[in-house]
Amino acid sequence: MKISISSFVAFALLLFLFTACNSSDQKEWAIALHGGAGTISQDLPDTIKQQYYDGLEEALRVGELVLRDGGSALDAVEQVVRNLEDNPLFNAGKGSVFTKDGTHELDAAIMDGSTLGAGALTGLTTVKNPITLARKVMTDSPHIFFSGVGAEEYANQTDVERVENDHFHTDQRYQQWQRAQEQALVDPAEAEKTSLYDWIEDLKFGTVGAVALDSDGKLAAATSTGGMTNKQFGRVGDVPIIGSGTFANHVAAISATGWGEQIMRNVSANTIANYMEFNDATLEQAIQFVLSQRLNPGDAGFIGVDRNGNLSMQMNTAGMFRASLDSDGNRVVMIWQDE
What fold characterizes domain 32-336? Predict the structure, then answer.
């Protein structure tokens, strides 16, 4: 069969245009982060509001510097979450909420989408930055998940920075815990209900997380939390449960925030990635499916990035502290739905 030169040129031109269009949709890198979701009053004093915006901007800048210079998605999410753990405004690391016993127990998880490697911890009491220890679990241990005494013992075998438990104390969280304690004393029979329902809007301010795509096309997710105010001994939330609050594979990276029990029941982060893969759905569609068809209004928020660098930050709550940026310069820093 003979192909004319003009036909060959036309075909080559079409192929070039098709490739150019597709490549323009592919971001070199992208990152998103969250600092918790829930009922966040828009009547927040301007000074407090600005502190949150500044905190989100600072954490976003940390991730931008890593990715813009060709760093890995894993480095980016770890460094962003470390920054948020050190910011007392958020319920992770410094500023973590109090347990029923008046102490702090921290959880964290990280996942490498290119290998499905993961590291997770729950019940930490002396590790300054749990997300860094979670990464060491992933890279240096044959295991994925350590808890309680075992998690602390594993930390003893590493060089992660250690602190006294009261390092995580802030006056705001202490007052929040006192209110929960007083409610339990007023009506002990309602204590369980209080910790899970009446206080849930207040509790959803917690949890921080980040997701990223790097210039090598690799995805990663990381999440960290101080848990639930006045939580019972041994309670574990969604954050360290791989597939529930934290997940990354070749399709997308997801980090969740909200009511941990609900997020776990629906294996939410993994469900989002699976919905994309098996239904040929977009990241936006997959997150919306979980929020509207699997969870109840007010339950949760998610941040995600797919392998093309498309970002999505959605919630079925009134607000979510969140920020995102990609290599094209698209920058978002928001708290409420209607900003």
Answer: Glutamine Phosphoribosylpyrophosphate, subunit 1, domain 1 (3.60.20)
